[in-house]
């Protein structure tokens, strides 16, 4: 049913802009007692006929050292901040009943997810701000993943969607997309980078001045490594794609 929902959402998106229809309601949501406080605002209906949209902002009161996001349909943006504050902004889009979103905090781990009723359109777009040193794990079935300013360990996986990362300074980064592409810029040399795309290109830009060992394999496509390599380097880069081009270069 999730895959059917994704397909139908794509079809409906083709007729976006033809009409404005529907009303806006607040999205249903639940949160753990120690987790969050939220405010909801109604937004004008989307330009997909018969759909509704609602936006809710949740301030997480508990300390967060790890963020785990599981998304079905919708983009996920995670940015690192200089302070201890964590904020989760949810924009729900739906044809009849709003998605039910959850935010739970346990042992410093904030888990964010949602469920949908059976309907033609149901998705949640996340915009999340976390402490920059937090460990981040994002899984999305369909939707773009955008990461910025993170200094902790990062793991991101999209079944269908582009992964974009900027200003990363963490020691370990793993980025995987089945259908999409990967564009990642690093502000500090990580110990390990693993980037895998089934169908899509990969571009990795790393700081100059560090030595890297690089493994780049493109089954159908060209792999270009324009940085010096050293077999015994303390920084390792692995980039693999079945269909697409690979570029590993210094950040400009």
Explain what this protein looks like in three dimensions.
The protein is mainly β and 252 residues long. The chain has 2 domains: 1-74 and 82-131, no CATH class; 144-252, no CATH class. The chain has one helix at 2-14; strands spanning 29-31, 36-42, 52-60, 66-73, 76-81, 86-94, 100-106, 109-115, 122-131, 135-142, 145-148, 154-160, 163-168, 172-179, 182-186, 192-199, 202-206, 212-220, 223-225, 235-243, 246-250. The radius of gyration is 19 Å and the shape is globular. The model is unreliable at 1-27 and 41-46 (pLDDT under 50).
Instruction: Encode the helix/strand succession as letters.
Output: HEEEEEEEEEEEEEEEEEEEEE
The percentage helix is under 10%
Number-wise, the strands total: 21
User: Which regions are unreliable across 5 or more consecutive residues at pLDDT < 50?
Assistant: 1-27, 41-46
In a few lines, what is going on in this structure?
This protein is mainly β and 252 residues long. It has one helix at 2-14; strands at 29-31, 36-42, 52-60, 66-73, 76-81, 86-94, 100-106, 109-115, 122-131, 135-142, 145-148, 154-160, 163-168, 172-179, 182-186, 192-199, 202-206, 212-220, 223-225, 235-243, 246-250.
Q: Which properties best describe this structure?
A:
11-stranded mixed beta sheet; 252 residues; 1 helix; 57% strand; disordered N terminus
Layout: helices, strands, pairs:
Elements: H1 2-14, E1 29-31, E2 36-42, E3 52-60, E4 66-73, E5 76-81, E6 86-94, E7 100-106, E8 109-115, E9 122-131, E10 135-142, E11 145-148, E12 154-160, E13 163-168, E14 172-179, E15 182-186, E16 192-199, E17 202-206, E18 212-220, E19 223-225, E20 235-243, E21 246-250
Parallel strand pairs: 1-7, 4-8, 4-10, 5-9, 5-11, 10-12, 11-13, 12-14, 13-15, 14-16, 15-17, 16-20, 17-21, 18-20, 19-21
Antiparallel strand pairs: 2-3, 3-6, 6-9, 7-8
């Amino acid at each position: 049913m999730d895959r059917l929902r994704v397909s139908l959402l794509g079809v409906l998106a083709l007729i976006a802009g033809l009409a404005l229809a529907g009303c806006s309601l607040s999205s249903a949501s639940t949160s753990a007692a120690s987790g969050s406080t939220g405010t909801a605002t109604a937004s004008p209906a989307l330009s997909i006929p018969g759909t509704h949209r609602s936006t809710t902002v949740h301030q997480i009161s508990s300390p967060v050292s790890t963020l785990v996001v599981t998304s079905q349909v919708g983009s996920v943006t995670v940015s690192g901040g200089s302070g201890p504050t964590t904020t989760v902004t949810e924009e729900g889009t739906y044809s009849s009943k709003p998605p039910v979103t959850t935010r739970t905090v346990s042992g410093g781990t904030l888990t964010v997810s949602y469920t949908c009723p059976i309907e033609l359109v149901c998705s949640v777009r996340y915009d999340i701000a976390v402490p920059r040193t937090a460990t981040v794990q994002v899984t999305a079935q369909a939707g773009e993943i955008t990461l910025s300013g993170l200094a902790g360990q990062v793991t991101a996986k999209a079944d269908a969607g582009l992964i974009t990362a900027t200003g990363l300074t963490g020691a370990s980064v793993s980025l995987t997309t089945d259908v999409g592409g990967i564009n990642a810029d690093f502000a500090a040399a990580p110990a390990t980078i693993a980037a895998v795309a089934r169908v899509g290109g990969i571009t990795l830009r790393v700081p100059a001045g560090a030595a890297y060992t690089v493994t780049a394999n493109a089954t159908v496509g060209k792999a270009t490594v324009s940085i010096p390599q050293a077999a015994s380097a303390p920084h390792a880069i692995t980039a693999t794609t079945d269909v697409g081009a690979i570029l590993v270069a210094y950040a400009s």
